[in-house]
Amino acid sequence: MTVHYPDPNSLDNDRILALELVRATEAAAVAAARFLGRGDEDQVDAAAVDAMRPVLGTIPMRGVIVIGEGEKDDAPMLYSGEFVGAGTGPRVDVAIDPVDGAGLTAKSLPNALSVIALSDRGAMFDPGHCVYMDKLVVGADLAGVVDFNAPIEDTLETIARTRGKGVADVTVTLLERPRHDELAGRIRAAGARIKFLIDGDVAGALTALQPEAEVDALVGIGGTPEGIVAACAAACLGGAIFGRLAPRDEDERRQILDAGHDPAAVLTTSELVSGENAYFVATGVTSGDVLRGVRYSADLAVSQSITMRSRTGVVRLIETRHRLSTSTIVLPRV
Asked: Which of 130, 113, 110, 70 has the alpha carbon at shortest distance from 94?
């Protein structure tokens, strides 16, 4: 009889890795939420990174950060190209945002998350210097029927028809930015509703991907790194993201071409994260549409997290109670 041993470089048989990753997002969320409402997003970012980094070093993986903070934010980074993990276990690409929504946290606004996504090494799209992407994110029932290149009016009709309701009952979410003024006008003129995001692109994508969510789609231009993270969640939930790189100027367009990317190409979920081994983990920092934020009492912090894995399609919602006097989480001085 031939015995088949798991490939130590692959995520194929690493079922507990998602639970290991939760420890890292929990640590970041619990530390970052100490600065809730204090008005300083740099403090939020610094606390999250300082708490997450040591935990990442204990996780049995050999990770390279493909999506980090180095390309976009002036933060105390977990930067693109950095090696993370304990140096054993599968070789993986890592997309990481210690706090997606540091500004939201600083202002006590909803939908800030601490996020990590993984794939097999080489499976994650590297956007290089391209900060922004035009996106369409939908749930599993819409993944095969929407057309990214169609006018938004047609997309709203397709969503309504597929979900058995009128366009007036369709809700889309997008970032509240001046660049979306025309798009928002067209959505309203078609009769649909808009749920604006102040920030928090990843949380917005998650609301569109969840089958029970009140949002039918995320549309518009947002962060490219957040698009890669959303692709990992889409792969786990059976939904879809479609995107097109959106260079801000000619220099950025030239960098995209030099990297071998076509700025006119429509990128699908499987092109943003290929293979069957995507993982997505998030912990709520502030309460929002997907997760509750961190809650504190005298010697306790309570966090809520979600984990998912594309190979199995399993999604877990986890509530954790951290006793602060004995916890290994690095709590910042406030």
From this structure: 70
pLDDT of 42-52, one tens digit each? 999 999 999 99
**245, β-bridge pairs:** 133
The token duo for 304 is 């809520």
196's enclosing H/E stretch is: strand 193-197
Q: Is the dihedral of CA 225, 226, 232, 234 positive or negative?
A: negative
CA distance 181 to 36: 30
What six digits make up the tokens of 179? 């660049």
- C-alpha distances in angstroms, 137 versus 123, 187, 221, 237? 20, 16, 11, 12
* Amino acid occupying residue 224: T
Whether 81 and 128 have beta carbons less than 8 Å apart is answered as: no
**Assigned token pair, 268:** 């699908």
DSSP state of 88: -
Q: What is the pLDDT of residues 135-182, one digit of tens each?
A: 999 999 999 999 999 999 999 999 999 999 999 999 999 999 999 999
Among 9, 224, 221, 203, which Cα is nearest to 126's? 224
